[in-house]
Design brief:
Number of helices of chain B: 14
Helix content of chain B: 25-40%
Largest interface: A-B, 46 and 54 residues
Structural class of chain A: alpha/beta
Distance between the termini of chain A: 29 Å
Structural class of chain B: alpha/beta
Strand content of chain A: 15-25%
Number of strands of chain B: 19
Radius of gyration of chain B: 24 Å
Shape of chain A: globular
Oligomer: heterodimer
Chain lengths: ~450, ~525
């Protein structure tokens, strides 16, 4: 079957229609609790001729806002205009709203920033076991730092909306395999429209430690240092290289070039490392090479929590990964996130290396809380801490004026299994709360319509 | 057992016991040195039957028979345990507030409000806690795909051919798998250990109880539980064998099933024929009359057919003695398998994974076949692409038997949470699903699927005391299993009784620093 274009029902532009059809009894449609403030002042605003003050502005009022940075605001007022939050405050702010503001009453609801999926394969993997649907790997060479999976991004992926309607609003898209795997992209989960996803390419370089090269972790580290040294060499000897007056390089010049922002300290190396010795090696490498690192996985990171805190190196881990699944993860434990936070290390939580169930990030948060992490810290770990790790916290990760208006309205404790997102806002727009899965559900809700003999 | 009239089943047979030379009589399996867990562990006894005459059962290596026949579990002389004042969720339709549950020996003695504590009983203050049956997983590879996942440990997929019905999970099970203790800490008391899904016929399953004292598969075996047969549909067999001798397509898969079951029918027939002529021969011998053949010569004692362990396994399926557990994702394929089962006259006890079960919930209810599903795994392969969160709930609504299974040593640690997610999704689509029904997804229904529902899976007087005390509502993400009892023995108490497998000794902080804490037991 040929791929269809974006389903209009899934398009953000079709929102008004989609929700109007009210998929899924029990899911609270946006329209049922949105209303406009009475047009008290019909005179046009001097600042925006032809527009009334507050027009195109939405304010969510009355909910409990978990800002993402640890703060909580009861009876919050969150104002969205265009793609950004314009002001955030308590009940006092509500009185100051411009008359034409669309008021959405979210009393009794919990508000959080949109959750952020770290190190995911969203949009570059559709079906894991079907190579024809995967673009996460840039080839067999261990050094493919220039590989940019964002170029393969599929905005029409059905996986995007499955995550989005459950509260994931941004994701870091990372390629997989090798030593230096490629470039990491940052997207917003807007289905069907690459432009609207605001893809940011090259926000990090992805790598792997452990037995990547020649079946030896020592060889792996040696190779990594060699590549970084050659990247520096190439950067200052490009002309010599063009004249063929440079010795052989450890990788292709394009891959060495792609490490420039990493070597300049502008973007981090997000690197998979589980065993304590690999994590220590990553810390040493970061110090020696003066680069930023972010530890992914970090099964045994808690053993060096103090050092991670001292160097302010984030660890992005998945709490449910508590098994001694290999000799690299013998120290894995459920309370690793709590131990790391207690020591003061930055912690992010994630469903790692995944594409289909990034939505279970909130369950991972709940499990981290059940095992000792403070609730607001767990939320930070799924929002602001991820944005910080990828250098995106100026625009993402918390509900603050000027930041991208990615926001989730929950009908209860966002980490609790009985709760659900009732409305998700991405870049200021209420998205249609519909996915390929809700469509399947509705198709099979009533089986009596299917004929067939036995 | 290979004919239409199986020989009477002896009370119990234990393969290992015979191998050890304990041919008959009683043997007490004493527990190993797990002092804390053992403090209240019942001693298990197993009656061994003498060899029978039936060809399939006389062998010491009795690959032919399921271990049917309940073995009495004798209670050790331990104090009764009274769980006092809890919310008791029985999985029988009732949830009792402020109720008590009394454990005596290995069984549940009483449930209700104001149960009197017998003399010497240990009274556990369970006010504010929730008590449920022990969780049961129909789909686990613990022990056959243990942690760490070393090549040396991969004993779950006999990938030498598409039909390895002769293989037995019990023969690959490593009771020292550290995953087992973590599952137990998650409230799991019983699990079916399955061979993998590479093959059309993967082999026989083993249903275990998560005893910390098991030193062998037989120690862990749920006494009296029937074995299962693992079958697999769809992508896996054709992926594994497509570039080899096949099957390469779903057509080849189904041919593989038909061919094997047809051969099993014929194998059974040959044994029936043998048994008949043997009976005639014996009868004649007894009377002193030598039977004569067509050539007028005296008939010799007939030789039994060559024994084939794979066909024997399939024969037991046809006799309804092995329960079929069928890895199958797609709705159309499940219906195909139900047709095949009807053709050969057997039942499929449960489909596994069954991500499209919601599309045929009515047919599954009609067929009386359970569906073991995940709460939300989907999309990792094409046949899993149509998974939805509401699968289990839609099955419940149609009157089918949904089961939340794990197929994962991580997932098995929180099947209560997985059920909670599936429950929430069902309620959001407007289905009325009671908490008790969702609890049955991880207790009563899996017990039924494993053929042990007469002994476990609900909280009822007389059933085995497989019980979990939760420190909060079991469907909350914040809740922990605080105490876990198996056969009345306390096998896990959060922060206090956390038995560890041999493998992990020496790998945790403090182990080698002379800090005994956590090392014993």
């Amino acid at each position: 079957m040929s791929r269809r274009g974006p389903d209009p029902r899934l398009s953000r532009r079709g929102f008004g229609l989609g929700i109007g059809l009210s998929f899924g009894a029990g899911i609270l449609g946006h329209g049922s609790w949105a209303r406009s403030a009475p047009p008290a002042d019909p005179s046009p605003s001097p600042a925006a001729p032809g527009r009334r003050p507050g027009e195109g502005v939405t304010a969510l009022v009355g909910g409990r806002l978990h800002v993402g940075d640890g703060k909580v605001i009861e009876g919050a007022t969150v104002v969205l205009r265009g793609e950004a939050f314009t002001s955030v405050g308590g009940p006092e702010l509500r009185a100051r709203l411009a008359p034409a503001t669309t008021i959405v009453d979210v009393t009794g609801k919990e508000l959080t920033p949109g959750l952020i999926a770290a190190d995911s394969h969203l949009g570059i993997v559709e079906i894991d076991l079907e190579p024809s649907t995967r673009d996460d790997s840039g080839g067999d060479h261990p050094v493919r730092a220039a590989y940019d999976a964002a170029e393969a991004l599929q905005p029409g992926s059905s996986l995007i909306q499955v995550q989005a309607i459950e509260g994931i609003t941004s994701a870091a898209i990372a390629p997989s395999g090798g030593l230096l795997t490629g470039q990491v992209a940052w997207i917003d989960l807007v289905h069907g429209d690459r432009k609207a996803m605001r893809v940011r390419q090259g926000v990090a370089v992805r790598g792997n430690l452990g037995q990547v090269i020649a079946g030896s972790r020592a060889a792996t580290l040696a190779k990594l240092r060699e590549v970084l040294a050659d990247a520096r060499l190439y950067a200052r000897s490009r002309a010599a290289h063009e004249r063929r007056q440079l010795r052989d390089l450890a990788a292709h010049p394009r891959d060495l070039e792609a490490l420039g922002p990493l070597l300049a300290g502008k973007v981090p190396l997000t690197v998979r490392a589980d065993r304590e010795s690999d994590i220590v090696a990553a810390l040493d490498l970061a110090a020696a090479e003066r680069i930023k690192v972010v530890i992914l996985g970090g099964a045994e990171a808690w053993r060096v929590a103090g050092r991670l805190a001292e160097r302010n190196v984030p660890v992005i881990l998945q709490p449910t990964h508590n098994l001694p699944g290999s000799f690299d993860t013998l120290g894995a434990r459920l309370d690793a996130a709590a131990i790391l936070r207690k020591a003061g290390a930055p912690v992010g939580l994630a469903v790692l290396g995944e594409a289909h169930n990034l939505r279970n990030l909130r369950q991972e948060c709940g499990i981290a809380v059940a095992n000792g992490m403070a609730w607001e810290e767990a939320l930070t770990a799924a929002t602001l801490a991820i944005a910080r790790a990828y250098g995106q916290d100026r625009d993402f990760g918390s509900v603050a004026p000027g930041k991208t208006a990615n926001l989730v309205v929950w009908d209860g404790d966002p980490f609790e299994l009985s709760s659900a997102a009732v409305q998700v806002y991405i870049r200021g727009e209420a998205i249609p709360m519909v996915s390929r899965q809700t469509l399947l559900r509705e198709r099979y809700r009533d089986l009596s319509k299917f004929r067939g003999s036995r | 057992m290979l004919g239409s009239n199986p020989p009477p089943s002896p009370p119990a047979r234990r393969r290992r016991g015979v191998a050890l030379g304990l041919a008959s009589g009683l043997a007490l399996v004493s527990a190993s040195g797990l002092a804390l867990a053992l403090a209240c562990a019942p001693k298990k006894s197993a009656t061994r039957a003498p060899a029978t005459k039936s060809p399939a059962t006389k062998s010491a290596d009795a690959a032919g028979e399921p271990r049917s026949g309940a073995t009495a579990t004798k209670a050790a002389a331990t104090a009764p345990i009274l769980l006092r004042g809890a919310t008791v969720m029985t999985a029988t339709g009732s949830i009792l507030e402020g109720a008590d549950l009394l454990i005596e020996g290995s069984t549940i003695k009483a449930i209700g409000v104001g149960v009197a504590a017998p003399a010497g009983a240990e009274v556990v203050d369970a006010r504010g806690k929730f008590v449920t049956p022990g969780i049961i997983d129909t789909h686990s590879h613990m022990g056959v795909y243990p942690a760490p996942g070393l090549t040396a440990h991969a004993d779950g997929n006999e990938m030498v051919g598409p039909n390895t019905a002769y293989a037995r999970a019990a023969d690959g099970y490593w009771p020292q798998d550290p995953q087992i203790e973590r599952a137990r800490a998650g409230g799991v008391t019983t699990a079916q250990i399955l061979p993998g899904s590479a093959n059309l016929f993967g082999g026989r399953s083993l249903t275990v109880k998560l005893y910390p004292w098991a030193r062998s598969a037989e120690d862990a075996r749920f006494q009296g539980a029937p074995e299962g047969l693992k079958m697999a549909c769809g992508e896996n067999p054709k992926r594994i064998y497509g570039q080899k001798a096949g099957p390469a397509t779903r057509m080849g898969n189904v041919h593989g099933y038909r061919d094997a079951f047809q051969k099993a029918v014929e194998y059974k027939r040959s044994w029936k024929k043998y048994e008949k002529s043997k009976a005639e021969f014996d009868k004649g011998k007894k009377k002193g009359v030598a039977l004569k053949g067509d050539d007028g010569k005296a008939k010799e004692e007939p030789d039994p057919p060559a024994r084939d362990f794979a066909l024997e396994t399939l024969g037991l399926v046809l006799d309804g003695k092995l329960l079929v557990h069928n890895h199958c994702y797609r709705a159309d394929e499940m219906l195909l398998m139900l047709d095949l089962a009807r053709t050969y006259g057997f039942k499929i006890r449960s489909f596994h994974h069954a991500v499209e079960a919601y599309k045929i919930a009515d047919r599954l209810a009609e067929a009386g076949t359970a569906a073991s599903v995940w709460a939300d795994w989907w999309g990792f392969k094409a046949e899993a692409f149509d998974g939805i969160r509401e699968n289990a709930a839609m099955l419940s609504a149609a009157g089918a038997k949904p089961i939340i299974h794990s197929d994962s040593a991580e997932g098995i640690q929180r099947l209560n949470q997985e059920a909670a997610k599936a429950l929430a999704a069902g309620r959001r689509m407007g289905l009325q699903i009671a908490d008790d029904e969702a609890l049955r997804w991880i207790t009563a229904y899996p017990a039924w699927a494993l053929g042990v529902d007469d002994r476990t899976g609900t909280l009822e007087v007389g059933k085995l005391a497989d019980v979990v005390v939760w420190d909060g509502p079991p469907f909350s993400v914040y809740t922990h299993a605080e105490r876990v009892y198996i056969d009345g023995a306390l096998v896990h108490q959060r922060g206090a009784v956390e038995p560890r497998t041999d493998f992990e000794l020496g790998y945790r902080d403090g182990d080698l620093a002379g800090d005994a804490k956590g090392v014993t037991p």
